[in-house]
## 1
Amino acid sequence: MTTASPWRLLLTPAAPGAWNMAVDEAILRQAGSRQSPPTLRLYAWQPACLSLGYAQPFADVDTARLRQRGWEVVRRPTGGRAILHADELTYSLCAALDEPLLQSATILESYQRLAVLLIQAAQSLGIAAEMASHAPATHTEKGPVCFEEPSAYEIVAGGKKLIGSAQARKKEGVLQHGSFPLHGDLTRITQALAFPNEQAREMAAQKLLGRATTAERVTGRVIPWETAAQALVRAFEAGTGLALERGELTGAEEALAEEFFQNKYAHPGWTERA
C-alpha cells in the first residue's frame, strides 16, 4: 500500500470531547485543502464523554445520570450510534479526497484498507483480531449503543466488536475516526442513556457484554495507552510504507479548532440538534 504525500503524526493530550471533535474538524479542513499534511492523530478523552452520531436523537441521552457521573456529551461529525469514551485509544485520519490511502470508489473500500492496519496493530498487542465482513443478519432493531454490533470491516475479537470506526466524506476532505477500548467497564454507557425502566437498562448492559469487548478482556492484562499508540503507528508505517513525521497542530488549526469548539461542538445548538 503506498501513498503520494508524507503523513503527519499527532499525539495530542487527553482533552474534553468538544475540543477533540473541534480539533478533528480543524485538521480535516486544513488537510483537505492541503494547507496541512494528511494526518494520523491519536488521542484520549478527559473527562469521560458520551459521543452521539451525527443524526442520533439527543433524546437517547439521560442527561441527569450523565451529570451525576461528571461525564460530558458531544455530537460527532460522523454517523453511527453512542460511544462512551473513557479508557480507550482514539484515532483519526484526515486527508484530501484524492489522497491514495483513503481514495476509493466507496467508503467501504477505504474502510477495508484501514481495517487491515487496525488488525495488524491489535495482533501485535497479542489480540486475535479479525475483520467483520458484514453486520449480523439477525439484528433487526438498532439500539442507541454503537458497540452493540460490528458493522462491515470493523474489528472483532472472539466474535465480539473491539474497534469501532466511522467515516465522513465532505467537500473539505475525508475524516475517519475510531475507538479502541483498552480496559474498563463497557456497560457504563448504559448509565448515560435513556431507558424506559431499570430492567431495560440491565438487559442492554448484558447484551453489550455479549457483543463487545476490550483489549483487557481479550488479553487478560491492561495495555497502556502509549503501548497501543505505538502499535498503531508501527502498523500504519508497515502497512503503508510511510515513515510518519511527528508534528504539532499549526496555528491555523488551533484557531479553527477554537472556532469550532465555541460555535459548534460545545454549543447546545449542535449537540441537541437532532
## 2
Amino acid sequence: MLRAVLAVHAVVALGAMFVAADARQWVMLLSTGALIALPGTMFWLLAACGLKRPLDRAAAPWQWVAAIALGALGGAVGWSLHIATGVASDEGLHWLPPVAAGAAMAAALFYWLRLRAQLKQPADATARLVELQSRIRPHFLFNTLNTAMALVRVDPGRAEDVLADLSELFRVALMPSNESVTLDEEIELAKRYLEIEQVRFGSRLTVQWDVDPQAGRARVPPLLLQPLVENAVRHGVEPSAKGGAIRVRTRNRRGHAVIVIDNTVSGGPSRPGHGLALRNVRERLALMHDVAAQFVARRDGERFRVQIVIPL
C-alpha cells in the first residue's frame, strides 16, 4: 500500500512540474493533486483487497477490467471529495481528467503487481531453493538408515515407522520449487523429522509442541521448518552430553501466523555452520510474502530463538 501511494504521488509531483511556473505554484498544485490522489488511491487499494478472492477466481481479462474500473471509480471518488471541500466546481467536464488518470494509474499498478507475481521466483532464488530442498544432509540419511537397521531385529515395527518418516521427508524434498504448502503440512513434516531424531537421541531430546490450529492455513514454502528444527538438533542437542529441548509454537495474531522455534544452547562447542539454512529460509519467505513476512533469529540467554511472522 505504501509503494502504491508513493508511486501515485510521485506521478502527481512530476505532472505538476510541467505546468508550475515556480516552486510555490508547484507545491500548491502538488497539494491540490494529493487531495484527489490520496483518497482515490486508498479507495482502489481497499476495494482491490476486499475483492481479492473473487478476482483471484476471475480470468485475466476480467481482472484487468475490474482493476481499471476500480481505478476510474477511485479517481471519481477523489474528485467528489475535492468538490465537497468547495475547492473545485462540478460544472463542465472537470471530472474527466481525474477519472482517466485513476484508470491509467490503476492499470500501471495492476501491471506492476502482475510482474511482481511472475518474478517471485527468479532464477537465482529458484536455484537456492532447489539446493535447500535437496539438502537433507548425507550424514542424516546414513544415521537414519543405521538406526532403522539396528531396529529391524529388535523392533521391526518401529524400524518401518522410521523408514516411512524418511520417505515422507524425501517426497517433500523432491516437490517442485514453485509450490507452496500449508503451515499444518510443514508442522507434520517437522514432527516426522523429530520423531526420527528421537529414535537416535532417546531421552536426550525433549520436544514440546504448542500449535494453534487457526494458524495452520498459512501458506509457506516447502521445507520451511525442517531446516530450522534440524539446526536446533545439530547445534542445541547433539553437542550436549545431557541433550537439550526444542519448543515449537504457532499463534494466530491479528491476521498473521506467528511461528516460534527455540532450543536450549549447549555450553560446549557445536560444529560450526555457514548460516545457509537460515539465509535461505529468510529469502524464500521474502520471495513469497515480500515485506509482509518477518524473520528474526537471535540468542536469548540460554536459548536460541527463531520467530517467523507471515500473513494468513
## 3
Amino acid sequence: MKLLEFTDKGIYCAKADVYIDPWKPVKNAIITHGHADHSRFGNTNYLCHELSKPIIAHRLGDISIETLAYGEKRVINGVSFSLHPAGHIIGSAQVRVAYKGEVWVASGDYKLENDGISTPFEPIKCDVFITECTFGLPVFNWRPQKEVFDDINDWWKKNQSEGKISLLSGYSLGKAQRIIANVNPEIGKIYTHGAIENMNDVIREMGIYLLPTERITAETTKEELSNSLVIAPPGAIGSNWTKRLQPFEVGICSGWMGIRGARKRQTVDRGFILSDHADWKGLNEAISATGAQKVICTHGYTAIFSKWLQEKGIDATVETTEFEGELSEISEQKVKEEAVK
C-alpha cells in the first residue's frame, strides 16, 4: 500500500485515514493553505498551520479546526505528519508524511522567492515529492520581484502625472497582500476593494503588519481616490464597481502575463509578471533540493513537466486533481493554452 494515494476525494493516507487538501467532504483533512481550491467546505475535522486558521475560518465559517506550528509533528496511527513553509502565501505549508522510514511530501502550491510577507519556502528531503506544475514550462522565468515592483511604482507615478487612478488586479488572498507589502507608499494612498480589505482585516488581527489601506465604500469620493493605487480582485475588473474610478488604467499581476498576447486578451493596460507559484527554474530547484527519486506532478503542465523530469532520470508520473493553480486570477483559460504554442 502506498503511503499516499490519489482518490476521487483527494490525496489520501489510508494508514492514518487522513486526506490532504480534499476536494470532496471527508472526516479528516490536512489543509496546505487558505485558497478556495485547497481548503473547501464540508470536512468534519481540519488541521492546518496556525497562520492559516484565521484565514480558513474567515472563508468557511464555524468549522472544527486544529493547528500546528511549522515543524511540529502530529502522529496519527503511527504516521507522522508535519507542516513546513511553502512560501506561497501567508500560512501556506508543505505536508511531510513519514512512516517506517518512508517520507512523502505533498507541497500544495509553492514558490521559492521570498516575497517579504510569507514564510520562505523550505526544501524537505523525501523519497516522493508531490509537486504542482502550474508554470511548468521553460517560457515561465520570473524576474526578481523588486524589479517588478519598480515597474509597478513607475506605472503608478506615470498615471498620477496623467490624472489617472491606477487600478491593479490581484487575488484577494496572497497576491493583494504581497502588493501592499512591496509598493512604495510614498507615492500615494492605497485603496482596496471590500473583498481584499476584509482579508486584510483578518491578517492584521493575526499581528501581521500591512501598509495602511482604505476600503472603498459608497461614500468614497472621486476626489479622495485621485492619485491613488486601487487594488481589486480579478472579478471586479470591468464591473460596475469600477465606474467611479474613471479615468483609470488597469494593471494585472499574474504569472500568465508572461505569455505573449495575455494582456490584450484580458483587456488591461499593463501586465505585471508576478506569481505566487514557482517558475520553471523554481520547480526544478525545489525538486532537486528534496532529493526525491519519485515525483508526482499535479495541476498545470503535468505531461510536459513529467516528461522533462523523466529525461533527467527521475521517476515522474502524473495524477489528476481539482486544484486550479493560478487560473482563478484570469478570466480565460485560453491564456494557458497559448503558452504551449
## 4
Amino acid sequence: MSVAHQPHVHQPPTEGTRRILWVRVGGCLPLNSGGRIRSYHTLAHMMHGCHLRALELHRTQDEPVSGPVAYAHEVERVFFRGLPAWSPRRLPQFAWPLLRNLVASSEPFALERYRSRELSQKVRELTLRGDFDLVVCDGLAAAAAFEGWEAERQIHAVLFQHNVEALIWERLASVQRHLSIRFFFQVLARRMSKREPELCRLFDGVITISEEDASYHRESYGLNNVLGCVPAGATTDARGVPQRVIDPSSSPCLAFLGSMDWLPNQDAVTWFIEEILPKLRHTVPELKLMVIGRNPPASLLRMTAEDPGIHFTGTVDEVAGHLRQCTLLVVPLRAGSGTRIKILEAMAAGVPVVSTTVGVEGLPLRSNEDLLVADDVPGITNAILRLLKDHGLRRALAENGMQRVMRDFSWQHSAECFFQLTDSLPQNRCSPSAERNVP
C-alpha cells in the first residue's frame, strides 16, 4: 500500500470541535465535474464548523498530487493500481476486465473497478482509532470500503449519494441504438439496482442531493436510513447579465457544459448535434455550439471535424468566462440522476437555460420563469428558437435566474444542511447490520 499524507494549515481541533473523516475516490481538484464541484464547495464551507480530514483513493498512474488544498484541514491519499479514466481509445485496456466482470462477477463494473483493499484497510484503521466523531463516504464508488466491519464501528458513518446510480444506467440503456451496448447497460442497471441498496444499508444515514433522489431511495429501495438531501449551490456573477445574452449579434452561440467523459453528457451532445442542431440551423444558419468540458471523445471530435461552428473547449480553468460568451445554455440530457450544477452555474452567470425534464430533475426551478423545459426534438428546437428571437424573454429569464440563485442557492446553506442532517443521528450508535436483524 502506498500512502501520502499532506497537511493543510494544520491546527489541532479545539475542545468540542466536530471531527470528521471524509472518504472519497479521487480528489476534489481540478473542479471539472459536477461531483467535484459539489464536494469541494460543501467541504470548504464545512471547514468553518469542524475539523476535517480527507482520505482519498488515487490511481498510481494518475498525475502526482501535492500541495495544500482548500477543502480539508488534512489530506491523506491511498494509491492503487486501478484502471485509468474511461475513454473509447482505451477500450483495449478495458476489454478483458469488462469481459471478466460480465462473466465471472455479479458486481457492477462501475463499482468493481474502484474496489481497493488498501482503501478498505485504511478506512477501517482510521475509523476504529477513535479520533473522529463521524465518517462520511462521499459517493457510492467508495462505499465497498465500509463493508464487512460495520458492526465494529463505534461512530456513525454516512453515505453522501450524488446520484441514483442504477437509474442512470437504466436511462442510458433505454436510449441506446446498438443492441450489444443496450444489453451491457441493462446488465449494469440490474446489478446496480441490487447492489446500490445493499451498500446504502451499510451506513447509519444516507444523504442525497435532491428530494427526488431521497424519495427514490426510500420508496424504490425501501431504505429507512435516508436522512434527507443537501441542495447544491452557486455564486452569482457580480458582472450581471452578459452582453452576448443581451445582444447575441448575428451569430448566436449555444453552450453545453459538462464533463465529456461522462456517458450521459456524451449521449446528450451526440443527440443534440445529430437531431436538433440541423433543425435550428434551418432558421438560424450561422448558429454556433460551444461544448465546454473535459475529455471530449474522439468519436464526437471526428463527427464534428468539418463543422467550424462546433467548438469543443476541453478542460477549462474557469467556466463562467466561457458561458458568458454564449447566448444560452442547452441541457438536452436523456439520462442521469441527482442534480445538474451546470444549470445553476449558467443561471448564476446570467445565461438563460433550455433543459429537458431529466436535465432539470432535482432542482426546484419553474419552467417559463427560471428556464424553459422541453423533452423532444420539436419542443427543444422551438424553445431555443423562441429564446433566440425574443429579446425580452431572454433577458427576463437571465435576470430571474440570477436572482433565484442569489436568493435560494448558496454553498454555505449546503454545508449547514449537511451538519443539520448528521446532527439528527441518534447519539448512541446501533450498527446497521444489527438493525437489519431485528425481527
